[in-house]
Amino acid sequence: MAKVAVIGCTHAGVFATVSILKAHPDWEVHVFERNDTVSFLSCGIALWVGDHVSDPNRMFYSSPAALADAGAHVHMHTDVVSADAATKHVEWTDLQTDEKGACDFDYLVVTTGSKPVLPPIPGIDGGRVLHCKNWDDALRVKELCGDADSVAVIGAGYIGSELAEQLSEAGKRVVLVDALPRVLAKNFDADVTDQMERAFADHGVELALGEKVVAFESSDSAVTVTTDKGAYTADYAILGLGFLPRTDLFDGQLDMMPNGAIRVDEYLRTSVPGVFAAGDAASILFNPTGKEDYIPLATNAVRQASLVGANIVEPTIAYAGTQATSAVQLYEYSLAATGLTVEGGAVRGLSLESTTVTENYRPDFMLTTAPVTATLVFDPETRQVKGAQFFSTEPDVAQAANAVSIAIANKMTVEQLAQVDLLFQPNFSNPVNYIGSVSMKAAGLV
User: Fold this and answer.
1) What phi, psi does 255 have (nearest 5°)?
2) How confident is the model over 367-381, as a mean pLDDT?
């Protein structure tokens, strides 16, 4: 019987633990988590702030008790202070009792997750500067911003955009600040973001784009966010600047990417035998480029970690990589993306092209319909599909990103995607589905 230490337990930790116990029910699996909860769906924080969550307790899909029932030895409120990758020796401290513990294991599974990006900006640790990462952050944001009149949101990615939307819908005065020149600039090209920026403006959100924050100054009643182009005062500021891997525990022990993500192979093995990593702590294979990357998404964490049990003794099932498929709903609009944008390709050294169409998602003879903006990104030399983006008031548009994700994973060309059999039925689609329209345009068929 082998003994395993799973260090960290959000999405990757939960699924790694379950997969190991399913594959090896007689093994002794110890789970170490410094917080008092597991499996928190942090993507729901903005929805909770906007009172769109039926019960915050349902933002957890597992629990320490559920893991214990599955056969794990669960150590909550426990901080792993030392872990030797070579010897598998782990030392920890109970944060409630200060009791120390240590043990040798046969395998280590590193699922320590990520931490918020916190640039060295003066005042960033002020009392009116809030974070948006874990359950404790969610409780604080929900409590403090509920009575606030104004909020400055720093970062216009998914997290910041969702917070700005929900807070503005709740009647708060909101300013959305980002050093990049567009909202959601890393997820969508300008054909989509131009429309989203108009929607923010229509809902009263002040956009401070292309502005770098240089200081925060908190007082008893407000915080002033100073940028290189102006200053904005609000009751609170919320940071949504992205995440970095939380892997300090293994500095100098495991091979890592420059940002600290632990490098893993297709079987989730690290550079040290017997040590595995998954989720936000680990690198991923990004299929649009065929190279390792760092893309902290719950979907990646779940799919990686679910393979740990199958591969822990010997390599059995390879991780298939990711297209970083994602979606968000802001006001009445649904936005979905997969793979690369043109700008994202350029950052990675790729020269890509895109084609965009805007057309109604179903026939005009229907009593109602709505326009869809569809963008297809492709390599002009190989003709391979590298990404896609969709924008509409029609919620089902998000599923289009899933369809193109499959095309990217299978290295399809725009010509091949243009010939895929996509349904026509007036309730759901035009005779030529918008995925077909944009791919046919990219293929030069229309």
Assistant:
1) -70, 130
2) 97
pLDDT of residue 228: 98
Mean pLDDT to the nearest integer, 39-55: 94
Give me Rg for the CA atoms of the chain: 23
Check if the beta carbon of residue 311 is closer than 8 Å to that of residue 269: yes
Q: Report the alpha-carbon distance of residue 72 to residue 67 in Å, rounded.
A: 6
Mean pLDDT value across residues 247-276? 98
Q: What are phi and psi of 323, to 5 degrees?
A: -110, 0
Active-site residue, 9 included:
no
3-state secondary structure of 390: strand
- Residue 194 CA to residue 126 CA, distance in Å, equals 33
Q: What's the one-letter identity of residue 217?
A: E
Kindly name the residue from 11, 30, 75, 145 that is annotated as catalytic. 11
Catalytic residue among 9, 24, 30, 43: 43
Instruction: Give the separation between CA 405 and CA 400, rounded to whole angstroms.
Output: 9
Output the CA torsion 230→236→242→244 (10° steps). 110
According to the model, what pLDDT value does residue 150 have? 98
**Looking at residue 322, what DSSP letter applies?**
B
List CB contacts of 270: < 8 A, sequence separation 6 or more: 85, 110, 254, 255, 262, 263, 264, 276, 277
* Pair of tokens at residue 327: 């979606």
Q: What is the pLDDT of residue 117?
A: 96
Residues 6 or more apart in contact with residue 406 via CB below 8 angstroms = none
Mention every residue, 6+ apart, whose C-beta is less than 8 A from residue 290: none
Q: Tokens in use for 433?
A: 């589905």
**φ and ψ of 42, to 5 deg:** -65, -20
CA angle 194, 197, 202 (to 5 degrees): 130
Q: What is the pLDDT of residues 137-194, one digit of tens each?
A: 999 999 999 999 999 999 999 999 999 999 999 999 999 999 999 999 999 999 999 9
Our answer to whether residue 89 is catalytic in this structure is no
